[in-house]
């Protein structure tokens, strides 16, 4: 697997994390130590202002259907303002994760789960059955109850600002190596 890690200005990426494959990290995103991001099924594009905490794992899995070599693999686009809490795991072969989602501690989202925007996957919830979470869905409890959120998820801009100032004092960071903006969010037609 070839390494092609692109870090945009303003991103805070700890050196002590595992990044494998073609990964683009947007400005303002903070990646803590001990994070694992693996782009085995195609590129991963992480938009601006995401927080990925310790021991979180994001894997872009290869699709079950073998693609021809002429067809370039579809990227996994992770929208802006997503929060991946400690030890959560996301495995996806789909092309798009929405914006402003919270993946709480030790949650697991399997390959055949599509995530809209504004969703919350509760602590230790395991989503393994193929499904599509509509925007603003909240999953919680051992029985995986769900409901619609009553209000939008708050932004994490204050926490992002704090982390980007404090983390360089305690961790070695990877330096930005790109000087342009991320590609725009794919249209609904290309995300399917």
UniProtKB/TrEMBL annotation:
MF annotations from Gene Ontology: dynein complex binding
Function: Part of the dynactin complex that activates the molecular motor dynein for ultra-processive transport along microtubules.
Protein family (similarity comment): Belongs to the dynactin subunits 5/6 family. Dynactin subunit 6 subfamily.
The organism of origin for this protein: Danaus plexippus plexippus
Subcellular location per the Swiss-Prot or TrEMBL entry: Cytoplasm, Cytoskeleton
Gene Ontology CC, one term: dynactin complex
GO biological process, one term: mitotic spindle organization
Cited SUPFAM superfamilies: Trimeric LpxA-like enzymes
Alphabetical UniProt keywords: Cytoplasm, Cytoskeleton
Protein name, UniProt field: Dynactin subunit 6
